[in-house]
Amino acid sequence: MKLLKIVDRVSIGLSLVLFLLAGLSDITSGKPLIHDLAIKGYDAVAYFTIGKALQGNEAFTFYWHDMTWNFSNKENMVLFATNPEKYAPQYDGYCAWAMTEGQKAETDPEVWKIVDGKLYLSCSSSAYEKWSKDVPGNIKRADKYWLKLQNKEF
Questions:
Q1: DSSP 3-state assignment of 2?
Q2: pTM, 2 dp
Q3: Does any domain span residue 13?
Q4: Mean pLDDT across the stretch 124-153?
Q5: Are 126 and 65 found together in one domain?
Q6: DSSP for 78-136, written as a single string
Q7: Could you tell me if 119 and 146 lie in one domain?
């Protein structure tokens, strides 16, 4: 009986070690760990630095807010890492218009706007048009819903 308990503990310990080593192999091989990919892999900093939506590169990643962020170059990755709140889209990248209704909707990274130094993404051109009719009012409404949604489990 004692031998069986020892074997069980050793087996559990070996399983844990193998699990951890499997995760470390991703780190050492340069592969990002499995996390949600922020804004479909687009470079959040590029919106600010070059004024356009630009696909990021898996070679330049940063983990923040339980998401993996891709960047087109090392400079953008470093800029984001030093001040993610400045570059990350509002509402963790969910659609600004949907958030005015208290909803989370995946966005199209090609439909965006910077307002007062903050990046807002939309899920479609039609959602962007609705949101654009009252940007200050919609931001205020979406901000309230976002605060409420952050305190709930989804």
A1: helix
A2: 0.76
A3: no
A4: 93
A5: no
A6: HHHHH-HHHHSPGGGG--HHHHTTT-----EEEEEEEETTEEEEESSHHHHHHHHTTHH
A7: yes
Q: What type of residue is 14?
A: L
Could you say which DSSP state residue 151 is in? T
> pLDDT tens digit string along 59-117?
999 999 999 999 999 999 999 999 999 999 999 999 999 999 999 999 999 999 999 99
| Nearest CA among 117, 131, 108, 116 for reference residue 53 | 108
Nearest CA to 33 out of 61, 75, 65 is that of 61
DSSP for 24-77, please give it: HHHHHTTPPPS-EEGGGGB-TTHHHHTSS--B-EEEEEEEETTEEEEESSHHHH
Structural domain boundaries, residue 139: 89-154
Q: pLDDT averaged over the chain?
A: 83
Lowest mean pLDDT among 32-41, 43-52, 94-103: 32-41
Cα 148 from Cα 154, distance rounded (Å) = 12
